[in-house]
Amino acid sequence: MNEILNELLHDYEFGKYQLKNHFVMAPVPSGMVENTIIQDSIVDFYDGRSKDISLVIIGAINIDSDTATNHSKIPYIRSEQDIQTWSMVNQKIHNNGAISLAEIWHSGSSRAFSDYGDTYITPTTRHFGQNDHKMDIKYIEKIVDKFVLAGKNAKMAGFDGIDIHAAHGSFLHDFFFRDTNQRGDRYGYETGTRIINEIVDRIKHEIGGDFIVGVRISNYRMYDLKSNLRSTEQELSDFLSTFSDRIDVFDVSNLHWRDKATKHSKILFSKFIKQVTGKPVITVGQIGFSNNFYQDLPMILKKISKDPNQSLLDMQHEKSHFNNSDYLYQNYLNGDFDMVAVGRPLLVNPNWIRELKGNYDK
Length: 362
Known about the structure:
By secondary structure, the chain is α/β, with parallel strands linked by helices.
């Protein structure tokens, strides 16, 4: 058996949970939403994809805000019907011996590049690059309330925790960059993690300490793939040190799992976060597929919506395998990450991990 696969198939102690392995399903779109209503087919979708992994991150899931979403197929977690559907999903996941996190978000400036581009917001303005419609403190406090409410609803729906989306140019991610955060108040660039910490601390206080609270974080933004949170390792270390120590896990989203912490750094972004925060780290980014194939996504979602249990092997392109497995193994031994997340391979093939094991056994 491949060495890295052997390591990842070992059980893993994660807080109060004894996970059966180190595999995570990364948040991927399912397309199973019609007129904001989550379709029942999503239950089978996650049932089929949670049998061989330990942790399922479901998202993105919109908070209850009129500017939250950037696509009509992204679900919410606000109505009784939403909670009931997510409860059925979580029952399947738990029956398969896995746990789940709800990835909750507000799309922020990433909404500018969608059909809702005329109504997106950033911490400083409602329209990217303009100076009108500035948000006051009360508006931001309202957004915090909505994140906390989404967390409470996630708890009611049977999720084991949440993954707060602060990556890829989302609203919370925008607080970390000077071009999207030019505020002069307590939510300004120099204290960019304050809004995250308020959400984390309130959820921990109002829901309870056993409820997992993670944060998804990235350097890049969907419209600026070469962006970095900070220019130097010292600046990045200072920034990461401002995150609440009540965060349970960092979901480190890279274009490639071997991406570095800063432009001139030699250390992996995932390892840097782990060293500075001392928290468990999930890494993701082309672990299973070397190509992005975003052009295939509309076709994939259409097919999966019709039959959530099918394997779209024609979309897989290659047999189940790790990209650069030797590097992945060495980085794991070096303590660069604790868990690995797989998104698109599981999206097209619910049996990807099972087939991965079979391919390496051969």
